[in-house]
Design goal:
The protein has 272 residues and is mainly β. It has one helix and 14 strands; from the N terminus they run αββββββββββββββ. It has a single domain, classed as Beta Barrel (Outer membrane phospholipase (ompla), Chain C), CATH 2.40.230.10. The chain is 7% helix and 64% strand. A twelve-stranded antiparallel barrel has the order 1-2-3-4-5-8-9-10-11-12-13-14. The protein has a two-stranded antiparallel sheet with strand order 6-7.
Length: 272
């Protein structure tokens, strides 16, 4: 039933975007942060895994607006799914993480600079799927993984350079040994933009995201790098071809004590 309601909500939110294509997010998602709204897939070369990301964020209400400040209320619904490559287009699903919640985004000016921020109040849970079983027996024992948290990040944009800082505060979690405070730093910067006299046709961007996460009060670094080649296509929709690198504790809750290290290539559909 939980999966049924999640799928219905995702369909509603995608429908909302189609009905209101002008609904550009006030806070632009962070390219190298793994926990962002994405519609796409990537292949991890080192361990021959495929990750399928399905989800979106929408701004639902404008709470306040004047010349220098704007505040909106929105909603997030994502799934992050890891699949195993078996060849011949067979990809058994090993694990899936469900992320949903609400957010408040803000744009403001301070000392002549443009800033934006986002506060998310969210839940994430992780689940083993039958692709990690053999003859009905799971290769790894499943357990309950669930956490609720506040996630706050603030960023500025200076001619395309976008440094940011944030913190994730976990206020409820199973298992109990998950660290409660997760600091975050990152930067995005433009590499090259190609355009004609009438339109842009390629935007190349490099991004880096750093976190300190872990368990049992031991902190471990997470490094994530993303190189994206964005091609605008039609009616505020585009496709991004991405190269990603990741090293650190797994983003998937069922494997939070295991380290992932991979380079991946994939694509992402972007609504802008």
């Amino acid at each position: 039933m939980k999966m049924k309601y999640l799928l219905l909500t995702l369909l509603f939110l995608f429908g909302y975007q189609n009905i209101f294509p002008q609904n550009k997010l006030l806070f632009t998602p962070l390219s190298a942060n793994v926990f962002e709204p994405r519609v796409g897939a990537m292949y991890q070369f080192h361990d021959e895994k495929l990750r399928l990301d399905i989800g979106t964020s929408v701004d639902l209400l404008e709470l306040y607006k004047n010349q220098d400040t704007e505040i909106r209320f929105g909603s997030d619904f994502f799934t992050y799914t890891r699949l195993r490559s078996e060849g011949r287009m067979k990809f058994p699903v090993e694990t899936s993480d469900y992320f949903f919640g609400v957010n408040f985004s803000n744009k403001f000016k301070y000392k002549g600079l443009d800033f934006s921020s986002r506060l998310r109040i969210s839940h994430i849970s992780s689940h083993l799927v039958d692709g990690l079983s053999n003859n009905g027996v799971f290769e790894k024992l499943p357990y309950v993984y669930s956490r609720e948290f506040f996630d706050y990040v603030v960023t500025t944009d200076v001619e395309g350079f976008r440094p940011y800082a944030g913190v994730n505060f976990v206020f409820s979690t199973i298992p109990k040994d998950v660290n409660k405070i997760i600091p975050q730093l990152g930067i995005e910067f433009p590499v090259k933009k190609l355009s004609t006299s009438t339109r842009d046709f390629l935007d190349i961007k490099l991004a880096y995201d750093f976190k300190l996460t872990g368990y049992e009060q031991t902190y471990l670094p997470v490094h994530s790098v993303a190189l994206s080649f964005f091609f605008p296509t039609y009616d505020n929709i585009g496709i991004s071809l991405n190269l990603n690198g990741y090293t650190g504790p797994s983003m998937h809750g069922m494997f939070y004590k295991e380290k992932d290290r991979y380079i991946s290539a994939g694509f992402q559909i972007i609504f802008y």
